[in-house]
Amino acid sequence: MMKVALVTGGNRGIGKEIVRKLALDGYRVILTSRLVCNSFDFFSRAKLFDLGLSNIDVHPLDLRCKESISGLRETVEMQYGRLDVLVQNAAVSGGGNVKRDFVGDMLKTNFWGPSCLMKEFYELLGDCSRVVFMSSMVSMRILTNARHPLVYEIGQNNTHLTERRLEELAETYTNNYESDKNLPRSCYGVSKILINGLARVYAEKARKDGKNMLVNSCCPGFVKTDMNKGNPNAKKLPVEGAKLPFYLATLPESCRLTGAYLSDA
Ligand SMILES: NC(=O)c1ccc[n+]([C@@H]2O[C@H](COP(=O)([O-])OP(=O)(O)OC[C@H]3O[C@@H](n4cnc5c(N)ncnc54)[C@H](OP(=O)(O)O)[C@@H]3O)[C@@H](O)[C@H]2O)c1
């Protein structure tokens, strides 16, 4: 039976390459995108068939919208019955010292959306499934440099961290961003330490539930995509950036790596 993989933000950048690699590897891939029409243009039917890739389906998903997430879960449940791989790739970036509303918006896409997606899809993820959260080296920089208890708590590597607590910490960060100047200014970096935390929480949950589901987060390196428009330091091509997430998405059955953060930087 063909394994089923879902990739968020699969229409461009690193996500598009992860979709391509999984499809070439024989997965039925659910490419999700906010702009389904654009995705169809990009992966035009003709191109897919040229590559022999008739195994990519396109579905709409906007991570800022709960209805969009639950709608996708219903579609996947009805059409595929289960998921073997979930790559939480979609995200937005943004600079430091922004307004509270910007922080809230970014966390909607980079933390609340992925968290909601995990809640919706956890039961659909099979016993030997693989979940990959796309994080960033910026998360490590935040952990090394920030001297704030909130950062320590998100970054702690213990089994007591819960999803509820992560949500409280995300709320506190957003609410206090303007008043507490000791909080890290990079909300992108904070969104990525929250994502690493989410990976650890779900790795532990799966372990407790007796599932051999492996959940990890990773940094793809500094990749030349729309996210890094014009940055000369972003030298890697998306195809190279896709290597580590693809590796984690296809960990062999005997593998026990879970709750880890890996970097290809
Ligand atoms: N590039 C790097 O150097 C680098 C380094 C470290 C980590 N990362 C991480 O790698 C991942 C992919 O980054 P990338 O460089 O490929 O970025 P990208 O080219 O900007 O692509 C981002 C993707 O996320 C999607 N997206 C944004 N907001 C969304 C929303 N609300 N709902 C659903 N999808 C949404 C975008 O869809 P639309 O087309 O609809 O906007 C797009 O498909 C991200 O998690 C990023 O943080 C990248």
TrEMBL record:
Sections of the chain in a coiled coil: none
The keyword Metal-binding is annotated on this UniProt entry: no
Cross-referenced Pfam families: adh_short
SUPFAM superfamilies the record matches: NAD(P)-binding Rossmann-fold domains (SSF51735)
InterPro entries listed in its UniProt record: NAD(P)-bd_dom_sf, SDR_fam
Keywords: NADP, Oxidoreductase
Origin: domain of life: Eukaryota
GO-annotated molecular function: oxidoreductase activity
Family to which this protein belongs: Belongs to the short-chain dehydrogenases/reductases (SDR) family.
PANTHER family membership: CARBONYL REDUCTASE 1-RELATED (PTHR43963), CHAIN DEHYDROGENASE FAMILY PROTEIN, PUTATIVE (AFU_ORTHOLOGUE AFUA_3G15350)-RELATED (PTHR43963:SF6)
Protein name (record): Uncharacterized protein
Organism: Oikopleura dioica
Species classification: Eukaryota, Metazoa, Chordata, Tunicata, Appendicularia
